[in-house]
Amino acid sequence: MKGEAGHMLHNEKSKQEGHIWGSMRRTAFILGSGLLLFVAFWNSMTWHLQRFWGASGYFWQAQWERLLTTFEGKEWILFFIGAIQLPTLFFWSFNGLLLVVDTTGKPNFISRYRIQVGKNEPVDPVKLRQSIRTVLFNQCMISFPMVVFLYPFLKWWGDPCRRELPTFHWFLLELAIFTLIEEVLFYYSHRLLHHPTFYKKIHKKHHEWTAPIGVISLYAHPIEHVVSNMLPAIVGPLVMGSHLSSITMWFSLALIITTISHCGYHLPFLPSPEFHDYHHRKFNQCYGVLGVLDHLHGTDTMFKQTKAYERHVLLLGFTPLSESIPEFPKKME
Q1: Which pLDDT does position 137 carry in this prediction?
Q2: Where among 72, 104, 128 does a domain terminate?
Q3: What is the rounded CA–CA span in Å between residue 162 and residue 326?
């Protein structure tokens, strides 16, 4: 009996090992095939984009050299325009459009994509004015001086106004590094600000908006604005010694993305704001930007059990996800 039991146990163990090995081979095959397809697609896409970049590169290089000639000896003015004025212009232009919807509820074809239905319809004008004043203070008294202070360090490390523009592939590499650095610094600084020691005195201000709108992406205590908003965006270009063109693109993109994350509307063909919107509702989930570190640290487990997680996709149609994936199923009449 003991011999038979041992033989059966051995067979069962062999089957399990075979099953595990088979699963590992299938997983490796799927991942390997997916990786090859991704690399092929990426190479094809970057080849076409590089051709476009190369074809227009002479034009942009000529325009850049013309700007350098115009601001010769006053490159710091050029840096101020590219690193501060243009990203700020993009921020307020985009938020200006969103504020029209926030304050009037119109046009309906945008307001129908609201994530938290029934909230900010319309937004509280007193609360909004107070928030805009804080945002302007953070930009004028903190963001602008920090970026100006950044200039001599960038000039020492690698002149941001150097004559040659970066190549397309180099810019893509920089963008990937900027995004990775921002994810790490924002996640851990943001999570630290949720510690009881710092939350009540600093981060609670930002969470006054449980149903966020775009402009409050920069509504924060000054300390938070420095630690969580500015440093994660600035460190990447400083480490890479980036060209002004890369800095302008990155700062503009970062401001647009954080606006989308806070805007309160899950609009077609734009990145999903469901992840960060859920953070404003529940506070103790979804601390990062991309969600990678939240997955590794398990700070998105509750989020993954919600309808908001199901809606956390790129909307490729025009039916609001709040209708196609409602929070509560409609009752049968």
Answers
A1: 98
A2: 72
A3: 52
